[in-house]
C-alpha cells in the first residue's frame, strides 16, 4: 500500500547547515533502495519532509527519523494513502528556503508532481507544503524541552492519610485523583470516580445491577464521595463527581438529594462540579435541559467529561453551557507528536476561550504531553504524571522541577 507521510521538526543546535547536503545525499541512496520519495524543506530552524512509498518502508524510515538526534519536536502532520505516487521519482531532494523565493520552491515541487491536476488544486500534501513555505502556521509551532529536562518530586507535605472506612465500601469505593496546576504547585480540585469495592471499573459495578436500578445506584453512591471528601478535608478545593447523563433525568429529585448530602457532609454546593460524559446516551432532552438548569441554580457547576470521545460534545457544549470541559485522554495521548491532535486541542482551547469555559487535560502520563499542552495554553491537568488515583483517599502529588542545565534553554524557547 502506498503511503504519504508528512512531518515537521526542529533542527538541533549542534547541526550545521553545511552538513545538510551530505545528509540528503546519503538519504537519497537509501530512499532509492527502499522505493521512497523524499522532499525535504528547511527554513533555518525547522524541517518539513514529505515521504512517499510502500507503507512498511516509510514507517520503518520514519521510526528511524524520530530517533535521530539531529532534530527534535517531531510532529506527524499527515498520513494518507493513494493509488499512485504524488511524486514520481524516488530518492531525496532538499529545498533550502533561505536560498530560494517561495514561488520558485513551490513551482519546483509542482514540476516533480506525477499528477499536476491533483497537486495544483486540492492535494492535502501540497497544501501542507505551501503552508510551511509561506510560514502561515508558525505561531502554532510549539517548541518544548526534552522529557529528561524535568524532575517530578513527591510533595512530602501531602502524605496519604490512613484509609477511611464506611459501610458502603462493601459494595463500592471511590478513587480520588487531583486536578493540578503544576507550575503553581497547586491542587485545584479532586475528582472522585466510582469503583468496585476492590477498585474495579465503574462498569464492573454497574454490570451487577438491573437496568432499572443503575441510575439510582449511580446517584446514591455520591453520598460516599461527599463523606470521603469531608474526611480528607478538601478545604476550599472543588470536588468533581461523575454522573451518568440520564441519572439526573431518571431519578426524581436527584438535585435535591445531591444538595442534601453535600450539606450533610460539611460541604457547599458551590464546591461541587458534576461531570457528565460526552459519550453517554441522552434521551428526553427537555427533561435533561431542565435538570441542568436546576443543577446550576443549586450552586453546583457542570463539566463535560471525556470531551472528544463521542459524537455529542459540541452539541452538549451549546446546550449545557458547562463551566469546564475535560479533554478525553485518547486525544491527550502523544499529542506532542501528532499534528491532527494538536489542531483539535488548539481548536478546543480557542472556542472554550470564547465561551469562558475552563479546559482540563486528562490522562497526562508523559512530560512531553504536559509541556506541549502547557505551551498551548492549558493550565490544569490530571494524570499519572502528577498523581496516581488512590482508593478512598488523597494520593501524593509529584510536582515538576526543571533541571538546572535546562533552565537557561527554557528561557530562550
UniProtKB/TrEMBL annotation:
Give all residue intervals belonging to the EAL domain: 155-403
Domain BLUF: start-end pairs: 2-93
Q: Which PROSITE patterns match?
A: BLUF (PS50925), EAL (PS50883)
Which InterPro entries has this protein been placed in? Acylphosphatase-like_dom_sf (IPR036046), BLUF_domain (IPR007024), Cyclic-di-GMP_PDE-like (IPR050706), EAL_dom (IPR001633), EAL_sf (IPR035919)
* PANTHER family reported for this sequence: BLUE LIGHT- AND TEMPERATURE-REGULATED ANTIREPRESSOR BLUF (PTHR33121:SF15), CYCLIC DI-GMP PHOSPHODIESTERASE PDEF (PTHR33121)
Identification of the protein by name: EAL domain-containing protein
Which organism's genome codes for this protein? Answer: Rahnella inusitata
Amino acid at each position: 500500500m502506498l503511503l504519504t507521510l508528512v512531518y515537521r521538526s526542529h533542527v538541533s543546535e549542534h547541526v550545521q547547515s553545511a552538513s545538510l547536503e551530505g545528509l540528503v545525499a546519503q538519504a537519497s541512496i537509501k530512499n532509492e533502495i527502499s522505493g521512497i520519495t523524499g522532499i525535504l524543506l528547511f527554513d533555518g530552524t525547522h524541517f518539513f519532509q514529505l515521504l512517499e512509498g510502500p507503507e512498511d518502508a516509510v514507517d520503518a524510515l520514519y521510526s528511524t527519523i524520530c530517533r535521530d538526534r539531529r532534530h527534535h519536536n517531531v510532529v506527524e502532520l499527515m498520513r494518507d494513502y493513494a493509488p499512485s505516487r504524488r511524486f514520481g521519482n524516488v530518492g531525496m531532494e532538499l529545498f533550502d528556503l533561505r536560498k530560494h523565493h517561495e514561488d520558485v520552491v513551490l513551482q519546483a515541487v509542482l514540476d516533480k508532481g506525477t499528477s499536476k491536476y491533483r497537486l495544483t488544486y486540492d492535494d492535502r500534501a501540497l497544501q501542507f507544503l505551501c503552508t510551511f513555505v509561506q510560514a502561515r502556521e508558525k505561531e502554532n509551532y510549539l517548541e518544548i524541552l526534552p522529557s529528561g529536562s524535568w524532575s517530578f518530586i513527591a510533595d512530602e507535605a501531602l502524605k496519604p492519610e490512613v484509609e477511611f472506612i464506611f459501610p458502603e465500601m462493601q459494595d463500592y469505593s471511590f478513587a480520588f485523583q487531583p486536578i493540578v496546576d503544576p507550575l503553581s504547585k497547586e491542587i485545584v480540585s479532586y475528582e472522585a470516580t466510582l469503583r468496585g469495592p476492590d477498585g474495579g471499573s465503574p462498569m464492573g459495578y454497574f454490570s451487577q445491577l438491573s437496568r432499572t436500578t443503575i441510575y439510582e445506584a449511580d446517584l446514591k453512591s455520591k453520598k460516599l464521595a461527599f463523606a470521603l471528601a469531608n474526611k480528607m478535608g478538601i478545604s476550599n478545593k472543588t470536588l468533581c463527581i461523575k454522573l451518568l447523563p440520564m441519572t439526573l433525568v431518571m431519578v426524581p429529585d436527584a438535585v435535591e438529594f445531591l444538595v442534601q448530602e453535600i450539606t450533610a457532609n460539611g460541604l457547599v454546593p458551590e464546591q461541587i462540579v458534576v461531570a457528565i460524559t460526552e459519550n453517554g446516551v441522552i434521551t428526553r432532552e427537555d427533561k435533561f435541559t431542565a435538570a441542568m438548569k436546576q443543577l446550576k441554580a443549586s450552586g453546583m457547576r457542570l463539566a463535560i467529561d471525556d470531551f472528544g470521545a463521542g459524537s455529542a460534545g459540541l452539541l452538549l457544549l451549546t446546550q449545557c453551557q458547562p463551566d469546564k470541559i475535560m479533554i478525553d485522554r485518547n486525544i491527550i495521548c502523544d499529542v506532542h507528536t501528532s499534528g491532527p491532535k494538536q489542531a483539535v486541542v488548539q481548536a478546543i482551547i480557542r472556542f472554550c476561550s470564547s465561551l469562558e469555559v475552563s479546559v482540563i487535560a486528562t490522562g497526562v502520563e508523559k512530560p512531553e504531553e504536559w509541556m506541549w499542552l502547557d505551551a498551548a495554553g492549558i493550565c490544569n491537568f490530571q494524570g499519572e504524571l502528577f498523581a496516581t488515583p488512590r482508593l478512598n483517599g488523597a494520593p501524593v502529588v509529584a510536582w515538576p522541577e526543571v533541571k538546572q542545565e535546562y533552565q537557561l534553554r527554557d528561557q530562550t524557547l
